[in-house]
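Box 3.1 A note on notation
Throughout this textbook, protein chains are presented in two layers. The first layer is the amino acid sequence; the second is a token string describing backbone geometry. Keep the layers aligned when reading.
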Amino acid sequence: MSEADLVERLAAGDKAAMRAIFNAHHLRVFRFVVRLIGREDIAEDVVTEVFLDLWRQAGQFEQRSSLSTWLLAIARNKAYSALRRRREEQLDEGVAEAIPDHDDTPDVHAQKINKAAILRRCLDTLSPEHRAVMDLVYYQEEPIEAVSRILGIPENTVKTRMFHARKRLSELCQAAGLDRGWP
């Protein structure tokens, strides 16, 4: 059954269609949200909101893009809303100062963790805009056209952000002691 048929059935209230869509897309949406937010517990709540919105708004799906593109766009908006709420709930300065700093020196840290973890840390320091583009293109394997629709920006802006994100990531990796070889 096609995605369009499933969404049509979902709009009519078909729970089996919802299960099929959820099973096909929840992991991808979850991974996307975790990469944007960085916390699995909050990502789970966001994914729940995404699929609740899908249930409520299935009749509004216009099929101008794929269902996964539409879901990732909803997920992106919900993830950024969750990040804004999280910033509003930050610790006060007195509590933050009381938390001990157990970070290793950069050399010790690089020795303790593998390259994948270093790369993840470097990716996390990118701006949210660059991180979202990198995630959609490299992890979600979305084409530039789909990324443009998900983020609501022109395709050339996606390409420009990719260029700057890769350049910045290269600088961050080099500063972290990563060479280009793998492993």
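The CA atoms of residues 94 and 105 lie 25 Å apart. The chain has ten helices and no strands.
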